[in-house]
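Please, structure for the following, as tokens.
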Amino acid sequence: MPLVSNKVTTIERHIIEQQERSNGATGDFSALLRDLTLAFKIINREVGQAGLVDALGATGNVNIQGEIVQKLDAFANTVIYRAMDHGGHLCGMASEEDEGILEIPPHYKRGKYVLLFDPLDGSSNIDVNVSIGTIFSILRRVTPGDGPGTLQDFLQPGFKQVAAGYTIYGPSTMLVYTAGRGVYGFTYDPSVGEFILSHDEIRIPEHGTIYSVNEGNYHKWDERVQRYIDWAKSDDPAHNKKAYSLRYIGSMVADIHRTLLYGGVFLYPADIKSYKGKLRLLYEANPMSFVVEQAGGRARDGGQRVLEIIPEQLHQRTPLIVGSPKNVEEVERFLTL
């Protein structure tokens, strides 16, 4: 993972340079990404001041997922929508927090893309100051004309994503994204108000020694998953393997960000309570899988490639095994026993 040290490249400059490499690019997609970065800067400001501006705690509402909505959840959801509804690049949006499609107001121009987002992943950790993040996915509309986006525009398999990424709000704020030509990381410099390229052409290690999973669900898992976990945390002298280290933050963005940089595997398998999986396919699994695959990793649902799943519902859930290719293959070997 090369660190950039010999030049200063802002995300806007990087987006323009990427645009110039694309034949037939009109600039719409680049402008869309620039609008998104503004939303991330505003969310970052609010997250950084959460304890000072009464932004901590729950709103008292419950979202479509049946989860308690945190104040920062609601704030981030509103900021992204308001930053993106008038740019003329989108024909619709969908948020993990809302049941249906978020339409573009009729007095604004509609564009050729749709945006799906998880406004604040890991929000249950907000009150204890743990890293949280925003996840996004961009698809090209498939319905003709310039009318409102329809469900068909959103229910596309993940391999059709035009771009995807996440922003992690932690000790430093970092934006990681791919537009299908590698993965790039930008660290936010508050002194100049810009995301600066800090991680050029991120590549996930082929193999790592860290596994990330909520072992509190151990007794709810299929016995094949249990056997993998038992093996992962044990020495295997016959294969010159030492026990892997468990690292689990409970914020998907943070856990997969660490996996992307250090290698290893992140698992969120199905269990007897969530037999179809827990993570949202369109808002979490697809964009994170796209990023990891573009960095040389692998993403599976336990049976097939995540990016090949044909979605049937806006809030569809899925199991997820994602990370270094050799680690994911290890998990799959146990699942086929």
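Residues 51-60 have pLDDT under 50 and may be disordered. Residues 28-48 form the longest helix (21 residues).
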